[in-house]
Amino acid sequence: xxxxxxxxxxxxxxxxxxxxxxxxxxxxxxxxxxxxxxxxxxxxxxxxxxxxxxxxxxxxxxxxxxxxxxxxxxxxxxxxxxxxxxxxxxxxxxxxxxxxxxxxxxxxxxxxxxxxxxxxxxxxxxxxxxxxxxxxxxxxxxxxxxxxxxxxxxxxxxxxxxxxxxxxxxxxxxxxxxxxxxxxxxxxxxxxxxxxxxxxxxxxxxxxxxxxxxxxxxxxxxxxxxxxxxxxxxxxxxxxxxxxxxxxxxxxxxxxxxxxxxxxxxxxxxxxxxxxxxxxxxxxxxxxxxxxxxxxxxxxxxxxxxxxxxxxxxxxxxxxxxxxxxxxxxxxxxxxxxxxxxxxxxxxxxxxxxxxxxxxxxxxxxxxxxxxxxxxxxxxxxxxxxxxxxxxxxxxxxxxxxxxxxxxxxxxxxxxxxxxxxxxxxxxxxxxxxxxxxxxxxxxxxxxxxxxxxxxxxxxxxxxxxxxxxxxxxxxxxxxxxxxxxxxxxxx
Length: 492
Hints:
Structural class: mainly alpha
Helix content: 55-70%
Strand content: under 5%
């Protein structure tokens, strides 16, 4: 294990984190927060702690050589340790800067932000300062593409190591960048990500938000995170224009970024490779139609248009795993809630900021099921599994099925663990809490519905859910391997 390079990479992550905290603190001061306020003092303490640790790690790694080996195990170790540690350090502003905020609550809020889950322990946002709002939103924006993707873009000394980091950190693969170095590809992603955020900000502002709300919601929309500056989420605005802007940018953010970038670059054959994207939009349209029809048959919504409006917004918010709400969908019909629960698991496209299983995995799983059914009756027939124009190997399909089985197993085991930690919750709430955290959704049903929060859970539960959030954000393997010693001993 090359400890020196891991220390170097972690120091870069912490320098970036300290800079982000500093930016939020200056933002708060610029907006009128007193320098001696608790929130500003909390940021100062947090910045000093993170900065000192970053310097210490940098000094420890000074003997690192550019020619030092950097294998997959170092990459996985760096990724896992980065997410665990940044979730802890990102909690410091909440812990130091908010009165009566416990360390566990702070860790939960920080983890939920960085993993773009959007679950919160706050029931009343009136006590939060400008700088705290900015940190909640910025943490989701940073977590949208991943902490590591940001510094891979500027770190040129890793060489092939950057390719390993990117492949394990994002939902896309390094092969998606067919030309040029991986750093160049990631820089394209970051430019696109930043540009999309700026466009979203101006769109929100033109639709009627004040500039502070527009800044915060632009960051959390593009990250498909769901943190809002209001406890009522988008119900606070009750503005159709704002909701349509949000729907548009949530959909864009849940679409494969590389697909969109290549369209903007004028690629001629990219439309032939968009099977996952097309499936995502078809599923969104069908789900919206079914939910709108379902709730229009009741007295929940006053008019069919109002029902369609809420159905569209909530469907997009859930399938993109953003988690905004315009009302209490927990009061909707059983059919509508079942569809939403299904969409929570599905998630958006691979290579986007959304959570969930990802559409591509679900499609491939169904293709594998169909192939098995056909071969049961025609065992001598050779069936080649394809996705779009790509031919999928049996090993690739096998790994997809194993991942789905693995995450469903973790979800089931998590429900059992939560039943011991929270014996007062019913089965729907237990299932929803586990699903919301593991698939980085945010709101769920019943006890954690769109009008509720996670503040009532006990400390052990919040820590367990924080672990599930990181597990889901890293798609299991990059975190699980940290706890399997044999991997570090046998493999490089």
